[in-house]
Amino acid sequence: MKVLVTGADGLLGRTLMRRLADREPVGVSIGDADIASPQETRALLTNYRPDAVIHCAAMTAVDDCESRADDAYRVNALGSANVADACRSMGARLIAVSTDYVFSGGLDRPYHEFDATGPRTVYGASKLAGEVAIRRHCPGHLIVRTSWLYGPGGPSFLHTMLRLGRQGREPLKVVEDQVGNPTSTLAVADHLAMLLETPAVGTMHLSCEGETSWRGFAEAIFDVAGLSRPIVGCTTAEFPRPAPRPSNSRLEKRTLRLLGLPPMPTWRETLETFLREYPDG
Fold first, then answer.
1. Which helix (H) or strand (E) holds 157?
2. How far is the C-alpha of 100 from the C-alpha of 180, rounded, in Å?
3. Is 99 strand, coil or helix?
4. Residue 101: active-site member
5. Whose C-alpha in 2, 48, 148, 171 is 20 to 30 A from the C-alpha of 26?
6. What is the pLDDT of residues 101-144, one digit of tens each?
7. From CA 146, how far away is CA 242, in angstroms rounded?
8. Active-site hit among 73, 101, 111, 123
9. Would you give the DSSP letter of residue 217?
């Protein structure tokens, strides 16, 4: 199976390229082709003729998306539409990566794949527009949503905490009224490699099992990394950002369960494995 990975220089893309090395994947980065151009996207797939495309390319700087909405929609919506249309026309399998930000974050339980969406940010709205385009242009797609990602090399919340934990001694304030599923790109890449061998279509959540707050995640990072800087909780209101953060980013993996596929690992177990292998992130 010949696999093409868009966004190959991004957080998840880099991990995927290593995980799929035995398949000799083709990695496409931002300088290789403009996916917002239908012509360039079609030429890219025509040149490589992949059997499957894992579409990771996206504008993911959540706050920047608020002030650069055109850029966000250009990449996340139009780019996804072009990739989907090219995959359909060439008969390539499409697995596209999306986000918990397509939800409002207002539910008092984890979101499953069949819940109504309702993004509150430009980033979330542009990613949802990309999902809609993928469903329209490439019926045989698989959309995979994930959240709270960290992976080798960063950048991510984990990398920020490792850096701050090694600096200073005063208490570090971390938000405690947002909850989610901290998720390693290693775990997501393992499941994506498995999903390439299945005929699964539709929408699937791939975040690690279990939940915590940002404060709880930071405390776990410090515990596993052996850092002793104290952490105190604070509210979202104490750290206003251009893009509102979801208070609930928890994702239920209902589709995995219904299909009888292996579950995602727990977030704490995955964190310990990650920091053993990558102690500096």
1. helix 157-165
2. 9
3. strand
4. no
5. 148
6. 999 999 999 999 999 999 999 999 999 999 999 999 999 999 99
7. 22
8. 123
9. H
